[in-house]
Amino acid sequence: MKRLILAVYAVIAMASTTTVFAQKNPMVGGAAMYATKDIVDNAVNSKDHTTLVAAVKAAGLVETLKSAGPFTVFAPTNAAFDKLPKGTVETLVKPENKATLTKILTYHVVAGKMDSKAIAAAIKAGNGKAELTTVEGGKLWAWMEGKKLVLKDAKGGMSTVTIADVYQKNGVIHVIDTVLMP
């Protein structure tokens, strides 16, 4: 009987360990991302997303991205923002440019929770390419190049997902290497 109890405890311990491992999110910008926190609460901890967080605050989108969602966010890194022409970010975060900034940021958001499996299914259903409608109302196109998920924006710009499936309590984030433009 004692061995049976010990065996049951061992199975429970293994199941718990497996569950925890399966739910572990990748580190982003040197910070742990927690599936129990919302998009904003996780993003503020990433040293790679300080520009994005500042832009979200300047656009007044913090409360929206803290809401229930769910949202799929293609999150450009600081390095992605650095690729923009000099002075672009500084100009966009000015109060008089809030509408333009909001348009650009909401172009990085798709309603619903589209993890890599859901995007892959959409790509397969679209014969190798998926068309995604953004919260801004524009279109993004997604496809695979080898093992990399590539996005194309309305202006023909290309971005690659560098970290996929960062689960949040109100959606999922995919880190990207280039800012998308509506």
Secondary structure layout plus pairing:
Blueprint: H1 2-23, H2 39-43, H3 50-59, H4 62-66, E1 71-76, H5 78-82, H6 88-92, H7 98-106, E2 109-111, H8 116-125, E3 130-133, E4 139-145, E5 148-152, E6 158-168, E7 171-176
Helix pairs in contact: 3-7
Report on this structure.
Helices cover 39% and strands 23% of the residues. By secondary structure, the protein is of the alpha+beta class. The chain has one domain (2-176): FAS1 domain (Roll). The protein has a seven-stranded mixed beta sheet with strand order 2-1-7-6-5-4-3. Strand 3 and strand 4 (139-145) form a beta hairpin. Helix 3 packs across helix 7. The protein starts with a helix and ends in a 6-residue tail after the last strand.
Which of globular, elongated, flat, extended, rod-shaped describes the shape? globular
| CATH superfamily caption | FAS1 domain
Our estimate of the beta-strand percent is: 15-25%
Instruction: Please describe the biggest sheet, giving its number of strands, its sense, and whether it closes into a barrel.
Output: 7 strands, mixed
For the largest beta sheet, what order do the strands appear in spatially?
2-1-7-6-5-4-3
Structural class: alpha+beta
Distance between the termini: 66 Å
- The CATH topology is given as FAS1 domain
Order of helices and strands: HHHHEHHHEHEEEEE
| Name given to the CATH architecture | Roll
Helix content: 25-40%
Q: How many domains would you count in the coordinates?
A: 1
At the first level of CATH, what is the class?
Answer: Mainly Beta
User: What do the pLDDT scores average to?
Assistant: 85
How many beta strands in the DSSP annotation?
A: 7
